[in-house]
Amino acid sequence: MQLLPACYLFKGLSESQFLRLRSIVKEKPMRKGQFLMNEGQAAGALFILKNGAVELITTVNDSFELPIAILRNPGDCAGTSALVSPYKYSLSSRCSANGKVLVMEQARLKELITEDHSFGFIIMRNLAEHFLEMLKEARQETKTHFKTFFKSIHS
Amino acid sequence: MQLLPACYLFKGLSESQFLRLRSIVKEKPMRKGQFLMNEGQAAGALFILKNGAVELITTVNDSFELPIAILRNPGDCAGTSALVSPYKYSLSSRCSANGKVLVMEQARLKELITEDHSFGFIIMRNLAEHFLEMLKEARQETKTHFKTFFKSIHS
């Protein structure tokens, strides 16, 4: 279980906080094609990749899949919506190579955070940092679209 | 100063936490055209709008401005990068109508958060929720671009 310190969410936790975290972890196998979570559904769990690979996807018009990211590194995580109100998955994730994931139930995570605000602070700080990074990347993408558009009307 | 409870960042703080927060607030006037913060620079302060209006913008190719949002409601905030490592503004903000802002220095905010992890937890949780909402909006925009692209190659 030395996997947990590899996840950005848990950077800065103390040994005793890691101990409590490990007590709520369950390891589960996953098979290629299996969905770990579905966009729009209740975010019942957080997933940490042990091995294998997981695609994060969103659906356009209920028909086309738009890829967001592929998780391949041990410690990569999916389902952070399980940490944040309104606790609904904003993406789907599908196993793209057989492997194993660590699963933490949303209700157990919430207990840990409520019991120990220092634990909660560290996780929320790491999560906010990560979301801000992703937001900057998304804005960068918008800038690229804008540049392409600008070139097209001036060419 | 009943403005602070109107800001999403401070939702859930106790009366004594609001009291400590108010002790680090300075009110400042702003004039149309004045920049409160500049993209890429050290995030030295968080700003809460009292009255007037503030544009959030990002620059493309160091020459074109891309508008991100306009803050008009008392309690709207700018400069949340002052709460999150690496403490650099990811956007610029410019006053677009004369008014007043509440200013909180980054170093003082960090002190409050470090001294009271319950305070830090509440602010980071609210911030993570807000960033996730903005990220969903940004993804929605990408979906719109994707749909437009898909239509154009199939028309």
Architecture overview:
Two copies of one chain form a homodimer. Chain A is an alpha+beta fold and 155 residues long. The first copy, chain A, has a single domain, classed as Sandwich (Jelly Rolls), CATH 2.60.120.10. Chain A is built from three helices and six strands; from the N terminus they run H-E-E-E-E-E-E-H-H. In chain A, strands 1, 2, 3, 4, 5 and 6 form a six-stranded antiparallel sheet that branches. At the A-B interface, strand 4 and helix 3 of A face strand 4 and helix 3 of B.
Q: How many DSSP H or I helices of chain A? A: 3
* Beta strand count of chain A: 6
Shape estimate of chain A: globular
Report the oligomer.
homodimer
Could you say which structural class the secondary elements and strand pairing of chain A correspond to?
alpha+beta
Arithmetic mean pLDDT of chain A: 92
Order of helices and strands of chain A: HEEEEEEHH
Largest interface here, residues on each chain? A-B, 36 and 36 residues
| Main β-sheet description of chain A | 6 strands, antiparallel
Rg result of chain A: 17 Å
Q: Identify the CATH class of chain A.
A: Mainly Beta
Sheet-strand content of chain A, in percent, reads: 25-35%
CATH architecture of chain A: Sandwich
| Secondary structure: helix percent of chain A | 25-40%
**The CATH homologous superfamily of chain A:** Jelly Rolls
Counted up, domains of chain A total: 1
Low-confidence stretches of chain A: none
- Gap from first CA to last CA of chain A: 56 Å
